[in-house]
Amino acid sequence: MTLRFKTLLLLFASAAISLSFLCWSYPSWSSLVPIPYVDDNLIRSEKDLSSMITCNAPKYRPLDPSTPKSHEIVILLASDGHTSNGKGDSFFGECIDNRIAYAKKHNYAFEFVNVSEMPIPPVWAKMPAILATMDKYPKAKWIWWLDQDAIIMNKELSLQDHLLSQKAMRRSLLRKQPFFNEKDSAAPHLVTPSEYSDADLENVGLIISCDLNGLNAGSFFVRVNPIMRMFVDVWSDKAYREKKVSENEQTLLGYLIANHPEMASHVALVPQKMINSYAAAEEIQRYTPGDLLIHFAGCWVENRCESVWREYYDEMKLNWKL
Q1: Are the C-beta atoms of 185 and 107 separated by less than 8 Å?
Q2: Hey, what's the signal peptide range on this chain (predicted)?
C-alpha cells in the first residue's frame, strides 16, 4: 500500500467520522446556520447519499408492545438547509433540535441527509433519500418524511397510537375520498376504498393528505417493503423530471396515482390535520393545539415565515421544556 493511498484512505475515514458525529458534536443544532459543510466529493450524483447522518439512533426494544415497534420507525429529512422559497436557513438548526427531541422521546430513528451538493433541486431529493433510508434500515416498518418548514408540536403523541398501528389506521383512513379536487380533472373518478379489511390495511404503503389544492408531499409515511421500494424507485425516475412530466415531486406523485391504478391501490388518505396542519389556512386545515405538527407551507407569500416560525417554535420549547 503506497503512502499516497494510505493518506487518501485516512482522509476519507476522517471525513466520514466527522460527518457521522455532526449530530452529537454540538449542544444544539440551532448554532448550525447555514447547513453544515460537506466535502463536495462525498456526493457525486443523485444516487450517492453517503452524507446521511444519524441524528438519533433508537434502542433495540424487541419486547416493545407497540405495533410497529418504536425502533422500526424512521423520521427523515433531506435538505440543503433552505426551504422551498430559498430561505429557512435561519431556523434549520431549530428544526433539527425539534425532531431529535421528538425522536428521543419515542425511541424513533431520525436521519438527516445533506443534499446541498446534489445535482438536482432539493424537492427531487426526497425519493433518493427515502430509498437510501430503506437500504440503511431494512428492518424498519415505516419512514416518516417531514419537510424542513414544519414543527412537531405534540410531543406526547406517538406515531403508532396516532396513525401507524392497524387500529389507528382503521380509525383514520378516509373512505370514498377523492384523490383529486374538483378543479383537477386528472382522475375525477379515483377515490379511496369504501372499506379497509385487514389485508387492505397491510397493502397500504403510502399515507398522505390533501390540502385545498390536492396532494401535499410535505408530510407523508412510506412503508418499508419491496413493493414500496419499487413505487419510490419509479417516483424517483429522472426521466419524468427531464421530460418535464411534472414540475415537482408532488405533482409527479399525483400523475403516477392518476395514471397507474396499481400504484394508486397502495396509497391511503387521512385528514390533513392529522399529519399536516397549516399555520394559516381554512379552518379544516388550520393548526389547533393538540395537533401533531404545524407546517408553514406558503408562509413566504406574505413574507411571514420568520415571525410565525418564531411564535410556534417558542411555544413548543416552552411546552416541551427544551
Answers
A1: no
A2: none
Cα–Cα distances in angstroms (integers) from residue 40 to residues 23, 34, 48, 51, in the given order: 19, 16, 11, 10
Q: What is the pTM of this model?
A: 0.85
SS3 142: strand
Say which DSSP state 30 is in.
Answer: G
Cβ atoms of 231 and 263 closer than 8 Å = yes
Please report, as a single letter, which amino acid is at residue 20.
S
| Cα–Cα distance, 129 to 75 (Å, whole number) | 11
Relative to beta strand 73-79, strand 142-146 is: parallel
Residue 128 has pLDDT above 90, yes or no: yes
C-alpha 260/C-alpha 281 separation (Å) is: 31
3-state DSSP call for residue 152?
strand
Strands (DSSP E) found in 65-147 = 73-79, 109-114, 142-146
Span 213-240, pLDDT tens digits: 899 999 999 999 999 999 999 999 999 9
pLDDT score for 18: 41
Q: Decide: 56 and 73 in contact? Cβ < 8 Å.
A: no
Q: What's the pLDDT score for residue 121?
A: 85
DSSP 8-state code for residue 37: P
Q: How far apart are CA 128 and CA 308, in angstroms?
A: 31
| Domains parsed from the chain with CATH numbers | 22-320 (3.90.550.10)
Pairing mode, if any, of strands 73-79 and 109-114? parallel
- pLDDT tens for 163-188 read 999 999 999 999 999 998 776 666 77
Distance CA 148, CA 219 (A): 10
Q: Which residue has the higher pLDDT, 30 or 289?
A: 289
Q: Would you state the cell numbers that stand for residue 112, as one nine-digit string? A: 438527516
* CA nearest to 254, candidates 170, 188, 174, 169: 188
- Distance separating alpha carbons of residues 211 and 218, to the nearest angstrom: 11
Provide the CA 322 distance to its chain's centre, in angstroms. Answer: 23
What are the strands, taking DSSP E only, across 57-129? 73-79, 109-114
